[in-house]
Design goal:
It is a single chain. With about 375 residues, this protein is mostly helical. Helix content is about 65%, strand content about 10%. A hairpin with a 2-residue loop joins β5 and β6. The longest helix has about 45 residues, at about 330-380. The termini are far apart.
């Protein structure tokens, strides 16, 4: 009974944490909108930030930390000192094109506390985006409290971009040894870490590429399938580290991967694929006219499903892991330091192990569906002329 009661209290605390954060966020937004109409913008920003800092609860701090981990940023922050307000990490290059090329480190923004001046132009980092401002860093808003300041062309090296560069180099280094082994002879056995990679390569070939695309055409698409599989798998694993990686949890990244799959599928398609899409063989003409828009819509929905599936699963997994870790802080008073730490550690450890499986599963699903879509596009069909 005690265990059941503790579990129910724990569940209620987690639900209360989520609801209190969302309700507080909505209330804060409304109060901020009213203060904009009453005072000057620069004074209002200062007062609202100070008031928010005073009223910030433990639940809000946890929610902000989760949102910071999930969002892209111009610097890596490993941890922060609440007493001194100092952040520990490293900054990344900011590359802007605005009346010329402007390059500087994101540390000049001081995490949004300072306005950066370059060649007579002023820039401010506000809520994860860079805006053009005046020397005081004034941000103007519309009636829905969205910034209307002009934004420069931004080609900065953000966390996601740096993570992609790092993963690309890592994949290149890992497969360099495996490629050298294969060049020496097809019967040579890989050595070192290459022995871990070879079973995965064979798995992608034998379980995804060959069954879905066919033995005659699968080799052409193996580089793409291997790249997608290992890129997603490694990025998912890096997302479980405390370094702040959340690349596959970014909708823009998953959208790019899905678009590449869509382009390869359409440009590799044969005439049978297009015939089945626009003029389905073997069915009456009225049905052909009805099926054509449905087939076109289906071709567009396929990459959309790839994009949303990967993004939603990774984002949900990271949110749940951080939510369970947050139990250590939120339930500290109710369960005590030892109790809260034990429960949070047990639940988060179990979920991290599960997330490792999910990391592989999401890479498998994306690659499997990509090979299936490509196979449907390049497959040769035999039609009965009598129909």
């Amino acid at each position: 009974m005690v265990t059941l009661k503790t579990s129910l209290n724990l569940l209620a605390a987690v639900i209360f944490t989520a609801t209190s954060v969302f309700s507080h966020a909505q209330t804060t937004t409304q109060e901020l909108g009213e203060s904009i109409q009453q005072t000057e913008q620069s004074v209002e920003d200062t007062l609202s930030s100070e008031e928010h800092a005073v009223e910030k609860t433990q639940q809000e701090k946890v929610n902000e930390h989760i949102q910071h981990h999930l969002a892209d940023d111009y610097s890596f922050i490993f941890f922060s000192d609440e007493e001194t307000g100092k952040n520990y990490g490293f900054s990344l290059p900011v590359i802007l094109f605005d009346n010329g090329l402007k390059i500087f480190m994101s540390s000049e923004f001081d995490y949004g506390n300072k306005v950066v001046e370059k060649d007579g132009e002023f820039y401010k980092l506000y809520h994860g985006k860079i805006y053009k401002t005046d020397a005081e860093g004034t941000i103007t808003y519309d009636e829905t409290h969205h910034p209307v300041n002009e934004k420069p062309w931004d080609f900065s090296i953000t966390k996601n971009v740096a993570s992609l560069f790092f993963t690309t180099i890592l994949i290149f280094v890992m497969f360099l040894g495996l490629a050298k082994t294969y060049k020496k002879g097809p019967n040579n056995l890989p050595k070192g870490f290459s022995r871990v990679l070879e079973p995965l390569v064979i798995y992608v070939r034998d379980e995804m590429a060959m069954p879905n695309i066919g033995k005659a055409k699968y080799k052409k698409f193996m580089p793409f399938l291997l790249t997608v599989f290992f890129l997603i798998f490694i990025l998912n694993l890096l997302g479980l580290t405390p370094l702040g990686f959340n690349v596959t949890g970014s909708i823009s990244v998953t959208a790019c991967l899905a678009i590449v799959t869509f382009i390869i599928t359409q440009f590799s398609a044969n005439k049978d694929y297009w015939k089945h899409m626009f003029w389905m063989p073997g069915v009456p003409v009225p049905m052909k006219i009805m099926l054509a828009p449905i087939e076109v819509l289906g071709a567009l929905i396929k990459p959309f499903s790839l994009m949303v599936r990967l993004f939603a699963n990774i984002t949900a997994g990271h949110s749940v892991v951080f939510g369970l870790i947050a139990i250590i802080f939120v339930m500290k008073e109710a369960l005590g330091t030892v109790g809260a730490t034990s429960i949070g550690f047990f639940l988060s450890t179990f979920l991290v192990v599960l997330e490792i499986l999910v990391a592989f599963l999401q890479a498998f699903i994306f690659t499997m569906l990509s090979s299936l879509f490509i196979g449907m596009a390049v497959q040769e069909h035999e039609h009965d002329e009598a129909h």
